[in-house]
Amino acid sequence: MTELSPAASAAAAGTTGVKTPGTTPHRTPRGYTPGLATVNFGIFLALLTPVLVSMAFKIQHIAGSVEEATAQLGLVLGVGAIFALVANPLAGRLSDRTTSCFGMRRPWIIGGGIIGVAALGLIGVATSIWVVLVGWCLAQAALNAVLAAANATLPDQVPVESRGKVSGIVGITTPLAILAGSFLINYIASDVMRFFAPGLVALVFIVFFVVVLRDRRLERKPAQRFTIGQFFGSFVFNPAKHPDFGWTWLTKFFIMFGYAGIATFLPYYLTERFELTEQGAITTILIANLASTVMMAISSPLGGFLSDKVGKRRPFVAIAGVIMVVGLVILAFAPTIPVVIIAQAIIGLGAGSFFSVDLALATQVLPSPDDTAKDLGVLNIANALPQSLAPAIAPGIIALGAGTAIGGYSTWYLFGAVVALAGAVLVYRIKGVK
Questions:
Q1: Are 68 and 196 in contact (CB under 8 A)?
Q2: How far is Cα 108 from Cα 219, in angstroms, rounded to an integer?
Q3: Is 139 in contact with 120 (CB distance < 8 Å)?
Q4: Which residues neighbour 240 within 8 Å (Cβ) at sequence distance 6 or greater?
Q5: Cα angle at 288 between 287 and 293, to 5 degrees?
Q6: Are the beta carbons of 303 and 357 closer than 8 angstroms?
Q7: What is the pLDDT of residues 302-325, one digit of tens each?
Q8: 30-214+232-429 domain in CATH 1.20.1250.20?
Q9: Are 258 and 387 in contact (CB under 8 A)?
Q10: Nearest CA to 352 among 273, 422, 432, 295?
Q11: Major facilitator superfamily (MFS) profile domain location, by residue (predicted)?
C-alpha cells in the first residue's frame, strides 16, 4: 500500500474523519487523548469494580457462605471472561470493516456501552447465580467490544513518537478506575447500585468520546466477504510469522495474570485471614487501592515519558514485572492489614510502569496496518484470558495450599508472583522493539 506523506494524511483526515488505512497521523487531534483516557476509565470502572469488589459480595449474598461463594465466583468470572476473550478481537475485526456514515468505531462504542450498562443493571437485581452469570457474560462481551473499538483508534490518531505519552495517560486510568470503584462501593450498600452506578458513569464517558472522536471512515465495503475462516482468524495469529507479536502477547498475559487475575480473591482473603466484616474488607480495599493508585500515578506517566525519551519499552516492562513480584510475595505473607496496604502499593508501582508502555509497545509490533483493531483485539485476549483462567484454577490452588503451613490464599499469591516473573523475563524475547 502506498504511504501518504504527513501532510497528505492530515488532508485525507480532513473534517470528515476519512483516512486511508495504514497511514500514519501527523499529529494527535485536539481532545482525542482526554477522550480516549476517559472512555478507558469508564470501561475499567464498570468492569473492574465487579471483578475486584462487588461481584464477590454479590455472590456471597446469594450463596450464603464464603466456601460456596468461592467456587461460584470462579464460575461467573471465568465464563464471563471467555465472552470478553471472544468479543474483543471479534468486535475489533468487524469494526475494521464497518462502513457506517458515523465512522468505523463509533457504532461499536456507543452500542456496546448501552448494552453493557443494561447488563450490569440485570446483575444488580439478580437473585440467582445463573442470572448473574448471564448478565456478566453480556456485560463482558459488550464493554470489551467498546474497549476494542476505542483503543483501535490509537494508531489512527496518534504518531508513533507520541504513543508512549498517550499510553501512559491511558494507563493511569486503570488504577483511577479501581480507586473510584472502591470509593463507590464503600458508600453504596445496595447491590443494584453497586453495579448500575459504575455502568452509568461509563456510559457518560463513552458518549463524550464518541462526540470528540474524529473517526476514520471507510468509503466502501472491503472486497473480501467476512467468512467463517476470518471469524476464527479473529482469535489467532501466526507466531512463527510474527514472533514479536507472539512474545508481546505472552508477556502481557503473564503480567496481567499476576496483576488482575490474582486480585479477584482479595475480599475473601481479607475476611478469612484477618476476620474482617464485609464493610471492613471494603474499607481496607479502598485504602489499599488508594495506596496503589498513588504509586501508579507516579510510575505510569513517568514511565511513559521516560520510555519516549530514551526510545525503549522493554526495560519498563521487565522492571514492572519484578516490582509486582515483590509486592505479591509481601502480600502472601502479610501479618497485618498495614502490610497488605504496603504490598498493594508496591504492586501498583510495578503495574504503573507496565501500563505506561503496554499500549505503545503493542502498536509497534502489530502484524498488519489494515487489521489494527483485529490485532489489538487478539492482544487484548491476554487481558481477558487471565481473568478467565485465574478464577477457574484458583479454587484448586487455594484448596491445595490450605493444607500447608502458609495457607491457601498465600499459596495463590505466590503462584501469581511466579507467573508475573515469567512475564518480566519473556519481554526480552521481543527483538523488534528496544
A1: no
A2: 18
A3: yes
A4: none
A5: 95
A6: yes
A7: 877 777 777 778 888 888 889 999
A8: yes
A9: no
A10: 295
A11: 35-434
